Amino acid sequence: MHSFTEENYLKAIYHLSDQNSTEVTTNAIAEVTNTKAASVTDMLKKLADKKLINYIKYQGVTLTEIGTKAAVNIIRKHRLWEVFLVEKLGFKWDEVHDIAEELEHINSTALVDRLDDFLGNPAADPHGDPIPDRTGNFLHKKLLKVSEMKQGQAGTISGVNEHSSVFLKHLEKLRLTLGTKVKVTELIEFDGSIILAVDGIKELTISREVAKNILVIL
Amino acid sequence: MHSFTEENYLKAIYHLSDQNSTEVTTNAIAEVTNTKAASVTDMLKKLADKKLINYIKYQGVTLTEIGTKAAVNIIRKHRLWEVFLVEKLGFKWDEVHDIAEELEHINSTALVDRLDDFLGNPAADPHGDPIPDRTGNFLHKKLLKVSEMKQGQAGTISGVNEHSSVFLKHLEKLRLTLGTKVKVTELIEFDGSIILAVDGIKELTISREVAKNILVIL
DNA sequence: GATTAAATTTAGATTAATCTAAATATTTAA
DNA sequence: TTAAATATTTAGATTAATCTAAATTTAATC
């Protein structure tokens, strides 16, 4: 099996290539793993030796098929544990990330598959992120950032792009949680902030920064 | 916090001093942790620096109060996870040890306490071992090895001294599981094996080795 | 009580993951 | 299209946990 650290690199590379759909750079990995570029280079060599990534010096990396499978499996575990923490243990959606970050490295296929069944084979985690099934398949819903919505457009909040406790608590306070219906009432030219109608009633102004991190399905 | 490895040493020392109620030796620790005596010595110095053990060169070790608390907490986590795996996920009692061995190192008091509540604050794990409460207190029931029972004596199986899958599967096959009532019908002088009446009906012969690892309450 | 045996510790190396500083490659932009 | 800026890699060290082999201490035995 792969070490705790290797798994974290694979996960980081997966998330980064998911966002940018191109080769992932050394610096980008260093940033999300809280390490230095030199450390990343060392690890990339190791992951390449293990055939988990395609790596050409100075050219960035992509995951191999094996690497992708490994990464998806970690993500599956992370998201299932998050569901467990929220649905069964009563944690709030802003409290589960760090714990799931540890639990995702527990190594037992039997455990994960049984957990999946115990939870009723959920399709998404508490933040709306889709959960891969035991074969590694999962659907990417096409979600739109609120910051990309046009005036007059309406949608249902179905995900977030930022999982920090601070951000999630803020959404909670604004009642902008999963399943909430929002409609863009007005786009403010000055600073890009957006006025929303929430559940057809309340009017609410959110900053562009917040809008970029809320995802809706139309 | 303590590293994964440090935690395993603390747990090992705890279990060993629980059995022998005297200073724990370097070699004994090396054996249960699957390392060499030299490695143990290194780690003992480190644990002593951290005030987790009382260590005098060549004299063996005992846990300090802090060390004991840390060890008991790991044991609490291990046993709660075992209950979860059996009660909620449907694992058998012989399948959970290795998984719990990983889960016990997950670091979150909130998680453990919520898990405890979710499971209904169980008093014992699937092998009958008592579970410490959140303050670290737990009752040691006075259990007797079947090998120490006298002829004619009866009791209820309430624990085991050996947690290997092989042994537990064997007990399962013999239907000598927790809660089963047994009575010593005959002690065989030749090899120390014992004939039991099980639930007042079936007669069963078990070896001395097996008898040593089954615990009853009278 | 001296000598042998066993247990423990020390010395010196190794491996995984990390770092800083220096060297090299790539990209940007004047 | 070359110089400057940025990104990446290499070189050399460090820390935690481990090891083997040698030295030392304690325990056992004659």
The spatial strand order of the largest sheet of chain A comes to 3-8-4-5-6-7
What is the average of the pLDDT values of chain A?
95
N-to-C terminal Cα separation of chain A, in Å?
41 Å
The number of helical elements of chain A comes to 8
Please describe the biggest sheet of chain A, giving its number of strands, its sense, and whether it closes into a barrel. Answer: 6 strands, antiparallel
Strand content of chain A: 15-25%
Helix-strand topology string of chain A: HHHEEHHHEEHEEEHE
What is the fold's blueprint, element by element?
Two copies of one chain form a homodimer.
Chain A: H1 4-20, H2 26-33, H3 37-49, E1 53-55, E2 61-63, H4 65-88, H5 97-103, H6 109-118, E3 144-145, E4 154-160, H7 165-174, E5 181-187, E6 194-198, E7 202-206, H8 208-212, E8 214-217
Antiparallel strand pairs in A: 1-2, 3-8, 4-5, 4-8, 5-6, 6-7
The structure holds a DNA duplex (30 and 30 nucleotides).
List keywords for this structure.
globular; 218 residues; two-stranded antiparallel sheet; 6-stranded antiparallel β-sheet; alpha+beta; DNA-binding; homodimer
